[in-house]
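Q: For a teaching session next week I want to show students how multiple molecules come together into a single three-dimensional assembly. I've collected the sequence lines for a complex. Could you give me the predicted structure tokens for the whole thing so I can convert them for display?
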Amino acid sequence: MSDRYDVDRVRADFPVLARTINGYPLTYLDSANTSLKPRPVVDAMSDHYLFHNANVARAMHTLGAEATAGYEGGRAKVAAFIGAATPEEIVFTKNASEALNLAANTLGAGLGVGDEIVITVMEHHSNIVPWQLVAERTGATLRWFDITDDFVLDLDKARAENLINERTKVVSFTFVSNVLGTVNPVNELSAWAHSVGARVVVDASQAVPTLDVGPISDLGADLVAFTGHKMLGPTGVGVLWGRADVLASLPPFLGGGEMIAVVEMTGSTYAEPPYRFEAGTPPIAEVVGLGAACDYLTAVGRSAITAHEADITGYALDGLRALEGIRILGPSATIDGLAVNRGGAVAFTVETADGLDVHPHDVMTMLDSRGVAVRGGHHCARPLHRRLGVTASTRLSPYLYSTRAEVDRLIEALTWTRDFFGGKR
Amino acid sequence: MSVEQLYQDIILDHYKQRHHAGLRDPYDAQVSHVNPSCGDEIMLRVALDGDRVTDVSYEAVGCSISQASTSVMSDLVIGKTVTEGLALAAEFSDMMHSQGEWEPNEDTLEDAVAFIGVAKFPARVKCALLGWSAWKDAVARATAKEES
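A: Of course. Below is the structure for the complete assembly, covering every listed component.
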């Protein structure tokens, strides 16, 4: 497929890819952490700030109308990108964490002792801690899915434990694991949760950038969170999609300007969604940038991006599997060199020939000296690492601009790192 | 700045063979410190006899820099007075915050001079300081306990 997908044309839109780091060409394989930004996204934000900047909704002059059009235009683009029924189903937050906190706090408002919240052991901290806080505050119980030795959710164990039951009020889980790359069965889990009347929240931060998730309501979830900066957009803007009737049923999260209907000193009434959940001046330029990112990804082609990522990920999995001392934490099977039903994040550990675990931070420093950017640590998923019996891991994550040559550079630098710590200096 | 200068043999040797590792009794204070950004964790105990550091023991997980630095630190402070140990901690901290512009004193810092290369990698300075921070905290608690 690489002959049909013009990766060089894509790369030309990312000026940073022309940089050298420590004398080596930049090899950016940290896109699950944050993606690089193409020129059209930065240009759109720059154009907004330089020629159309004003506050939204409340400024009744020409610039105000243009800024509002830019902001609401961004909402419409994001809605179209994920196949939402209407732009009003899109709530802008400052990141996915805030979107998940919004979900936890509004759904949590009605919880009490005896109620149960269910998450999974493979969650990012942003889909663990908000629920822990809600459970602490309301007296609800937090429970979670375990994983199997094959790195997928252990549904049999969950059934045996009666994990989802009549006390379950919320089930919240990640679409694609940011460590394992595992793709969870969103439809099946949503149907299971709905069968007991629970609300379903999905963290799609690692899914939306690569998978064509639309129409979003087909997932069966009630609320879906994701972030802009992992899909070529700027930092500072996240998204909570909600089914219209679900959003309408939720109380406000943060109070302030823009989210009200009428304010009296004795009490206030609140705006309809999505504005009910957008207190204060929103991230206007960021939404303009995110809209441009949606345009960019659409122009490159969603299915082409998915196929390219399966190719690069599959190539990386095959390369890592062939490397002595590397243990992949996640599904590693490939078919015809393509990754199968998994995200692009590939986490692994490195061991030297004499049995020394090379710590991910040392791996990261060594790779960086060769211009290779990856992430080392627990990737905001400490409980998952504990479950896997390791304290930390190294993670590569490609995106639409990644190449097989970059994977080759990673593998070469990894081999050198392993042997350096193994005493073959 | 090459990784060879960063990962000097002294550091790799201490990483592979950590001195004074493992938790031991008796002790006067025990502390747990973490580096939340990377997940490095240390539990450290200090035993004092009056003003004298009689033992430092620890259990830790982390990168070569944090592990080796803790090992070197334990070598340095065991047998010294608290005042001498704190002076060494200050000297080491100054070196680590020097961005590498520092003439390390091998007479006082001994093996710890190997960490001068780490000072040029800003992201790794906190790794080298984790064990020292835990030790200072433990000594402060042990001393406070003694006074109360």
